[in-house]
## 1
Amino acid sequence: MEKTPANFFAVIMAGGGGTRLWPWSRKEKPKQMLNVSGDSSMFQMTLDRLKGLVPATNIVVVTTAEQAAKLMVLSDEVPAENYLIEPLPRGTASVIGLAALHLKNRAPDSVMAVLTADHFIKNVPDFQRLLSFGHQAAEAGHLVTLGIQPSFASTGMGYIEQGAPVSADFDHPLFRVARFTEKPDQVTADAFLRSGNFVWNSGMFLWKTDRVLEEISRYIPALSQKLDQIGAAMNDGTYDQAMRDIWPTIQPVTIDYGIMEKAQDVVVLPAPALGWSDIGSWDSIYDVIEPDENGNITIQCKAVHINSNGTLVCSDHPEKLVVTVGMKDIVVVETEKAVLVCPRNETQKVRDIVAYLKDNNLEEYL
């Protein structure tokens, strides 16, 4: 692989709560800090995937103050000054805009790869090759998104329809984005899968820093105005105060809805062989952990499965013994504060449980 250009930066969004992996993932230890499939946290795995491609000094992490302190304990690779703190969640568009502001000051000609800290990717060499191709396309002025080959007709994923090929001298196929579709119904998802022309929206992007700031200005002017105020504060010594005063007034919006669904020159870089999962629910764990001969998965505890198939058990206590008898496709999660028992095909509804706890003043269990 060619030497990575000095203007290439990776921005890791690591401020999420991972509510769909409740109760294992919770405020004090969200999923990016968990060891889902081995000895390393998902955050460390994200950093490891970038080794040899992006130096640690060119990695920027956007997260909350509480999580930043914990992430620094998990890994000391990224310099402390490269952690950007968001006082409150305000959507991915604001997170990306804040990172772009800092990178514009540091390296005006920078290209940024936007990644998250809760993805699982088996094929790291292919991931690095794709980021290199994406850098090349971003340098040419495109807004690039990585598209994952669907493995089934998911109703929980966003889809991208691939349009015409981009006619240029690129080292990898690149397609215009015809449209985005967010979480279709089952009939539509089935049709997308049959067509062969749709990919999952991975939530990984590449673009020039100044280009994404221009798009924010064009399509989310209210956010752009707030970012301009924060940018001015960077230069007059009032940045911390500006973040306290201005950031909470930002209206949350996602980068997909705010920009990608509206912008021109959006392209998709197909990523058919990544072995990718966003670890978006307990069901997705089955894609990344090798089960036993009966399809059972055991995480961070001891387990005995009797006449059980396709059952997942997880505990916060490594010495805890969990026994399942006659269970089929059931998820059992035991923690200090809560226990979850749920059919595998209902795990997407865990988010509803989290909403219920919030609405009923039971946040001590989050």
Note: Residues 91-106 form the longest helix (16 residues).
## 2
Amino acid sequence: MQQSADLPQGIDLSLPVMEGLARAWYIGGMQKKPVVLGEWKGSVDLGGSVNFTDLTLNPHAHGSHTETLGHVCKGDHPIHLLRWPLLIPLTLVTVDGSEDHGLCITLSDIQSALGDGPLDRAIALRTLPSTMDVSKRDHSNCNWPYLHPEAAAWLASESVKELLTESPSIDPEEDGGALAAHRAFWGLSANEVNAGSQARHEATITELIHIPPSVSDGAYALNLQVAAIENDAAPCRPIIYPIEIL
């Protein structure tokens, strides 16, 4: 069988989980350790036949990740049970998340960035100032840009199901555990821990991505790849494709 289609590679927005690299939330980076069973070692460097390694990682802290409302709710809401279309319509917009602006991204900021353009099922928020030098940045104690709960609630009301952000969280680094924007986007009331009838079980939040400055605002198609791990969150690899090349 001959393959005639030359498919585009797309633009990878993920920050990988890397050994020893801390990215957020005051903890060290992922740890790797070869399995040792008696005299046998799971490391080719140590004389083993294969590399067979245990990983200790935290999806929320160590790289790009996608999370469900199980992040703030009781019960089981694992990410691996969700399914996404192969390509999801996505709107990419740039908003001002600088300290001069006040760090808080408001509803007005998002609506101004959208202008007369459409709002698709997925939205990716690039926050200014934007820099390519984020591959090894630790965001702990940096007071990152966050989303106002009103803006998160509006996105939910507009049927946005996939929200992507460059910050480690759409809420402030320190907010006393309120996670108001998370709750608003997932259709939860303040302090609600049992997902009620208005909860948006299929909505997801993807954090700690990076949108290169060379990528223009506009319409894209999103391929959201998420590791099949039974947990409220898992490492992910969001890849976007300009609509005109598909």
Note: The mean pLDDT is 93.
## 3
Amino acid sequence: MWIFGKKEERIIELIKNHLDLVERTIESLRDYLNMYFSDGEKATVIYGRIQTLESDADRVRRKVETDMYSGAFLPNFRGDLLGLIESVDKIANKAEFVADLIELQHPVIPDELKDGILRQIDLSLETFRMLKRSIEYLFEDLQKAGEYVILTEKREHEEDEVERGNIKKLFELDIERCAKLEIKEIIRSIGDIADRAEDSSDRVEIIILKRRV
């Protein structure tokens, strides 16, 4: 267990708040994709929600950093925790980036790809949720935190398989090459959400190892 006082407890709550905001950003991207595939105009409302949530997550991240530099936590863990929350914040950034790509370019997604793309975002969300649990357990139960690190990696691998299948199917379609490249960037960027979650889980694993020494 960590040894911490009220200052550390406040920061832990901020970290959990940040995790919630990042999760809601990815959930909103999933909602956005579902709506875009059925009614592109209505999806714009959800796009605004994504922007707001990402901005809120960024604000909380900055608050964590400011409070952390006031002396919370031991110095040897402070840097690791700061690196972790910055890494997690990049996941929300990527979710917003995917929404930007679609909202600004309005690509025509072939029906053959829609289910696969929705499966991708579902798995990316599941990957993040495993990461979220690993970080929450980091302050409570190292064994559980490690178990969720493994689950994060497993979900990312599942997403990666779906991503490759989507790209293979995309280039088998009889559509313009420029459209294929546009859609490929969207597919890859959705995959980056899961990739960044796995990158963050690597940071969790390092913190676990340091705490066990």
Note: Helices lie at 6-38, 40-68, 75-105, 111-138, 142-172, 177-212.
